[in-house]
Amino acid sequence: MQLPEGAAQSRRADNTLIKALARAFRWKRMLESGEFTTIAELAEREGIAVSYLTRVLRLTLLAPDIVEAILDGKQEPDRTLSQLLEPLPTDWQSQRRGRNGPCSVTDLARS
């Protein structure tokens, strides 16, 4: 289907991204509350690899407006979980470069 010129295409929330964000913030809360004292202990309880848990936990470092865009289904169409699980800058300004999301490692090397 082709939209008329100037018409905005509606986007849908990406449930995979939303679930990953929910898990990340849940795991962060569990660690901060002392329910689990180490990432390894939490990963074992969840039945996942420590490396996966740490990559997902990094989602809690996303700028609030990027998280909000994901929750509202307004993230860039090519924004995927695998892309967000890659190393990302911790400062929010750098995350916003490009298409309102984390820049690539290549972009970081250039700056």
Main beta-sheet annotation: none
Q: Give the C-alpha Rg.
A: 16 Å
Strand residue content: under 5%
List SSEs in N-to-C order. Answer: HHHHHHH
Beginning-to-end CA distance, first to last residue: 40 Å
Structure summary, number of beta strands: 0
| Strand-pairing-aware structural class | mainly alpha
Count of helical regions: 7
- Which regions contain 5 or more consecutive residues with pLDDT less than 50? 98-111
**Average pLDDT for all residues:** 83
Measured as a percent range, the helix fraction is 55-70%
Apparent shape: elongated
Q: What do you see in this structure?
A:
This protein is mostly helical and 111 residues long. The chain is 56% helix and 0% strand. The chain has seven helices and no strands. It has helices at 15-33, 39-46, 50-57, 64-71, 81-84, 92-100, 105-110. The longest helix has 19 residues, at 15-33. The termini are far apart.
